[in-house]
Every structure is written in C-alpha cells, then in structure tokens.
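Page 37, top half.
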Amino acid sequence: MRLDKTLFVLALGVFGIATTEFGVIGILPELASVFKVSIDKAGWLLSAFAIIVAVFGPFMVSLLSPYDRKKVLVFSLLVFAVSNALSALATNFTFLLIVRMLPAFFHPVYWSIALATAVENAPPNQSSKAVSTIFSGLTIATVLGVPLATLLVDLWNWQSSFLLSAMVNIASLAGLMWLLPTINATNTKTGYSKKEILRKPLLWINILLAFCIITAMYSTYGYMADFLKSVSKMNGKEVSIMLFLFGIAGVFGNRIVGKYMSGKPFQTTFLFLVALILVHLLLFVFGSYFVPMIVIVGIWGLIHTGGFLISNVSVASSVVPEAQEFVNSIFTSCGNLAVTVGAIIGGFWIVHFGVQQVVWSSVLFLGLSLIILLVKKRLG
C-alpha cells in the first residue's frame, strides 16, 4: 500500500474521533448551565468517555483483531456518528452521558490499528514521523473541531455542536470507505509473548511517564474554556478564536516533536516538560490580562500538542515492532485513564481552590514526569 495515502486517510478518521472526544471541552460551561450541573460534574462528559477507553481498550482490540481492519475502522466511525446524533437529542444529563460513552468502546480499536499500521509500514528511522502524521488528525481536531464546536454554541445552540461532530464522523467514514486500501487482519500467530512484554520494566516506566504527562496536560486544558471565560473574561467568540489559535500552533508543535523525537528522545521530552511547566506558570501570572493571554495561548498550543506523540513514541519504543498493536492498545488505555484523572483532578482543583489555581495541578504532574524521566535516564 502507498504509505502517505494510507497515513493521511487514517489521520482523517482520527480527526473524526478526536472531535467527538474533545469537542465538549469548549462547551462544558454551556452544558453545565443547560443541564443545571456543576462544572466538575459536566467534566464527566470528557472523563467518563476516557474511563471506558481505559478499562476496555486492550479487551476490545483483542476481540476485534481477527476481523478485516478496514471494516472495523469504518464501523467504529459509524458508531461515533450515531452517538453524536443521539447526543443532540438529549433532554437530560444522564442520557447525554450514556450516549457519549457508547463510541468510547471503539475508540481504542481505531487508534491501535491506525498507529500499528503507521509503525509497521514505515522505514525504521521514520516511525516517529509516520506516527506524527496519525497524530496530525488529533491536532487538526484541536485546530478546527474544538473551536468550531464552541463557536456553533455561541452562534446557535449546543445541539449544533454535536451535529457538527456527527457530520465530521460521516465525512471521515466516507473517506475511509473510498480511499483506504484493504488492511489485513492482525496475524494471530505473533512472534512475541504478551506476558514477556508486560514483564519489561522499561515498558512500565514509560507507561507511568505517559500517564503523568497526559494527566498534567488535561488537568488544565480540559477546563480551558472555563479558564478563558472566568479568568481572562473572554466571550464565546473570543474563546473560539483562542481555541483555534491553540490548535494552529499545535500543528507546528506536532511537526517539530515528530522531527526530533526519533533522534533525541530524552532531550526532546525534557525540553517539552520544562517548557510546559513555564507555560502554566505564565497562565497563572498573566491569566487575567487579555493581550498577554493571546500570546500565551499560542505558545501553550505549540508545546501542548507534542505531549501525546512524545508519550506514544516512548511507550512504543519499549517493545518489538510486531507487538505494536497490542502495546498501542495499552497506551490508548493509559492515555485515556490519564485524561480521566486529569479532568477529575482539574475539576476538584477548581471547586476547592478556584479556576485560576487549576494550573498548579498540571505543574504538580509535570514535576512528577520530570522525576520519572530522570530516573529512566539513570536506569538506562
């Protein structure tokens, strides 16, 4: 198969599922108001989705691995589209929460197949670049999906935000059906032992590092819209523009990390962590100043977006190429568990200390990430 075409089509699907998962970030304040729940309870629309992924990820990947990969990918996006359509019909918070959880079962399946395909078909020294192409779908969702979802609420209503996500999923589904070549099912006669892989200390160190990094990222980012409205005093349109700026900057950040992560993983990860700590400190100091926040949000997006790529490459580098799909399912579970924990901790921090203080929850986990990275370097 032609690698570039395959990667870009798979990234289109990632754009669809990422818009569904993270599109609620910009509209949490509106949903909390409409359904008369607190902002931390509204945060469960993000964290409950992630819990399902975390708990059922490896099981769903193993269950569906014997089937045609292309058909599995297409069906996964169909479930996402139906879920978003049902979300737009929700009349109470419980129903919305339940239908938001349905596509989460297929989220890790899509991610694992997409990432494994990228690694399996890329030259050995180009695997990070191939993975960064898949993650570009997440970045573009940040650029377009999340800001558009936020803007639609301001222009029309919250239902239009979910309908947008449904249309994005349908477009992604059509792209996969027409453009994606056949991808063979996973060979069940693998050349590795899952038990042996799970006994690798390096794998668990990298999983712990990934968990702390992603938890740190989403403790604050998960409540970005609330922070910009409450602390920076921005209106709905201005928040949409800031989310768009965040995502545009993230496109470049993703490319930079993809370029350097293969050759200099430790240095790239170290600089990422230090830079993200500094950005959160700037958010705390200048959060109430409109103009400085425009610059800070751009820098934040440039740095933040590389976190998933750094985490994935670190975890995937722990095992042999044949085990990529299995390990990617573990990474997807780890990442979504971290999103859950980040959303819960961020919500807890806001309720008890105020929204401006939420940045310290991220700084705490970024500090832990630095310690784990240095321990890994010492042991390695």
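Page 37, bottom half:
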Amino acid sequence: MNKKMQIICDSDNQRIDSFLTGRVGDFSRSYIQKLIQDDAILVDSKKVKTNYRLKLNQVIEIDLPEPKEAGNIPQDIRLDVLYEDDDIIVINKDKGMVVHPAPGHIENTLVNALLSHCKGKLSDINGIKRPGIVHRIDKDTSGILVVAKSNQAHQGLAQLFKKHDIDREYTALVHGIISEDAGTINAPIGRDENNRKRMAVNFKNGKYSFTKFEVIKRYNGFTLIKAVLETGRTHQIRVHLSYIGHPLVGDSLYLKHKDSSGIEGQLLHAGYLGFIHPITKEKVEFKSELPQYFKEFLKGLTEYE
C-alpha cells in the first residue's frame, strides 16, 4: 500500500527536487525526480516538472510507492579497503555512497559492493538486508567504517559501540567563526517533532548525546574543526553543530537558510577510527586523509584574521 504524505513548503524559489531531497526519507535526488516524472508528487494538486521552483506555503503532496524488497545483489564496485582479515573489513567510504539498500537506494550501496568483494562472507546478525553492518555513516559523509565478516566479530564490535569504547574522530567545516578553541556539546538527540525525517536536540524524548570539538583553523565565514563522538546518535555531529549555530557547510537538511557555498552534501569526513579488535584483542587504528573535493574547497577560502 502506498504511503501518502504532505509537506508545506518553507522555502521560496527553490527547485522542488532539491527541496525534497533529504526531507522524504533518505532518497536520492534522482529518485525524487523519478517520482515527479511519474506524477507521484504534486504541488497544490497539480503536476509539475523536476525543475519547478516552489513558492512559500505551497502544499506538496507525495504518493510514495510501496518499498520494494532490497535484493542485495553483489555488484563489482570499487572499494577503498584500509584493512581486511577473516573477521572484519575496514572501508574508506566515498561521499555519495549509501551504506545499505533502502527504498530509493536499492543498488550501488556499500553492501552491494561488499557482497561482491567478500564473496558473501559477511555477518548475518542484522539479516539479509544489512549483512555485516555494525554502524553507519551518512550517505554524504565520507570516511572510515568497520564491517563485520563473522558473527563473532559483529557481536564484539556491537558491544564496543554500546559501551562507547570505539574512538571516532571527524573533520568538519562549519558556517561561522567559532570563538572557543575547544568545547563540548551535551544535548539529547531524538526525532524532530516537526519533521520526522530530521533529528533534533530534544530534551523531552531525546537520548543522551555528547560531542567534543576542537578548532583546527578559522577562515573568513567558516571554521574547520575536529569532532570526537562519545555517543553515536543518528546525524549527531550535524544536529549538534546546527544546534550551537554553526551548521555544516553543504548540509541542506540542517541549514536554516539556503547554503551559498555551492556544495551539495555536508563537508564531514570520518578521518580516524580506533578500537580493540574483537577477535585478536589488539588495538587497531585507521586514518584517512580529507578527500580531494574537501581540500579544494578549503584552498578557495581565506584565513580569518
């Protein structure tokens, strides 16, 4: 059965496909465009084109097709493998790659690539839809994540995440100048009560969430920071930085105003992962440099004086 929903436009003169990306599930822009072309998305009960520019307070009606079963077909997709043994594999994920299949992203995900690379040898604790997946990073977040190949490793990694015994460091570029050299954000995160597709600081129903940050460099209008996660809530860094008034560059979901940077997708990179190997019990550490597009954007900025 199709799922029907309505969204009141809170933007003006923004393309409908761009506006809806990130607001309707975790669907790609191309999938949103397909829904528009199939007349599954209407504006004020009228058909529109994918480049239609919305007006404030228009009513967007969405008729979402029933999700198809993700087939998890192995696909020969290039992976940047940082480490691999019989129990775990550590991947440096590219920006734009979804971690596991879901409606709108049934193919070309990390799981599809892993099924091919690992010849199907992945933990099945999370079922056939998410084989090997212990934790995730967002589609437009680049960087390191660990995947379980054996069930024993999966159980061990899950315990480490539960006890917050995995070290994770991210590099992020945010809007505005952060005056403090370092700080902490201790604010519970839960579903946004006004938009179920977003997370938000929620003191009523949110879960304990703690982020540390340290300024790396200040630019005119921007600050480059290192963020360290103690907890790992959905969109945690994105929500916490937006909450203190410094949303991530390119993060259309958590920006209150249109991003003038020209970047699509948040400038956020998971650059360090350290943990005790669940089988060998040895400390392992992995690092990843900033991707080239991130470096190029920083080169175009001027230092803050």
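Margin note: The chain is about 15% helix and 30% strand.
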